[in-house]
Design a protein that fits this description.
435 residues, mainly alpha, Glycosyltransferase, 2 domains, 3-stranded antiparallel beta sheet, 9 strands
Amino acid sequence: MKKVNARNTVYYILAGILMLYGFQGNPVSNDLKRAESTLQLILKMYDAGHDDLFNETYPVKPDNKVSYLADEDTIAKQRVAYLWPTSGVYSGINALLKATGSKEYLQLIERKVLPGLEQYYDSSRNPAGYQSYITATGKSDRYYDDNIWLAIDFCETYLLTRKPEFLERSISTWQFVISGWDEELGGGIYWCEQKKRSKNTCSNAPASVLALKLFEATRDSSYFNRGLQIFNWTRINLQDTADHLYFDNISLNGRIDRKKYTYNSGQMLQAAAMLYKLTGNKTYLEEAQRIAKSVIDYFTEDFAAAGGDTINLFKNTGNWFNTILLRGYAELGGIDGNDQYITIFRDNMDHLWELVRDENGLFSKDWKGEKEDEYKWLLDQASLVEAWAILSGNTGQFDTDAAVNKYLNLLTPEAKSKSDVYFEGGYWMMPGKAR
C-alpha cells in the first residue's frame, strides 16, 4: 500500500484548525490591489511588442538615451529598456508571487519575464552573465549589481516554488558576480566589469544579501562565509561611522564618493538582519536597528500630507532606491516585530497613490508631487509594484510545513514525539488525543 504523506493529506483540515488558533489569512488589502493594478498598467503600456521586452519609458522618448551607465549611452537603433529596469519588473512580479501565492505570477515569470531576460544573456564572455542591453545589438557593458538583483530574484523564486531551475540560474549568476571580487583595496566587488574604476556599496551590500540567501537555499556554508566576508568588507570600507549609513563607492586610489542613497544602507540593513537571523548574534541585530533609525533621520522630512497629517516623507531619492530600502525594513520587522518603519513607508505610499499618480495611473520620481516627469520610467513603476506587494503583509501562501509546526507547537512533548503516528492514524483529530 502506498504510504500517505500525512502532512499533505491534512492540508485542508489543518487550515481550518489554524484559523481557529488565529493564523487566518488577511483579506485582499489596498496595498495588494495597488500592486496588481500598477503591474497591469506596466504590462499594457510598456510592452515593446516583440521578444517579451519592455520600453524604457511611457510614452516612448524619442532618443530614449539613459544617464545611469558608466559611460555615454551609444545605442542608436529602435530602443527597448535596459536590463536594470527590466529586472525591476521581475522583482515586482516576484513580490506579488510571494504576497499571493498565485500561479498566475509564476506563469508570468516563466512565460514573459524569463524569455525577455534571455535577450540580455551573454554567454560569449566567461563567465556568462547578463549584459546591460540586449545582445541583438552586440556586446554591452556588464554590471555586477545588475546581475546581483537578478540572482536575488532567481533565488527568491526558488525559495517560493522550490523549482530547481531558478536556483541553478541564481548560482550561475552568482559565479559571474563573485568573479568581480579581487584583492585591490583588500577585497570587494567592482561595479562594472568593463570599467573597473571603483568598488561600490551597490555591488557589495546586495552581494552579501545574495550569498546569505543562497546559504538559506542550499545550506552550503561557503555562501554564508562569502556573505559575511562581503558584509565586513563593505562595513569597514564604506560605512560612515558618524551615522551608520553608507557612502556610494570607493575608487581604486582610495577616494570615497560620500554620496548616500537609501538603497545602499537598506541592503546593509537587510544583510545585518539576515546575519542575526542566521547566527543569533545580537551585534548584527543592533547594527540593523541603528541603520534603520538613521535612515529615517537622514532621508526623510516632515511633510503635510492630504488630510492634514504630518508624515516622514522620503526626500527625492528614487522610487526603486526606496523600495530596496523597504526590503531591509521588512527583513528587520520580521525579526524584531517593530512596525514603525513599515508604517512610515505605508504613509508614503498612501501619499503617492493619492497625490502623485497621474491620469494614466503612473508615477513620477518627485514624492512631493511638485514635479511631474513627462516620460515615466519603467523602473519607477515596477519598483512601486514591489513596494505595495511587500506592504500588503499577506503572503497568501499556505506553507504546509510551517503550518503543521505551528499546530504541533500547541501539543504536549509526548504528543509531538508521536506526531507521525498522529497524522498517519488520524488520531490527532479525535477529541482529547492532542492533549
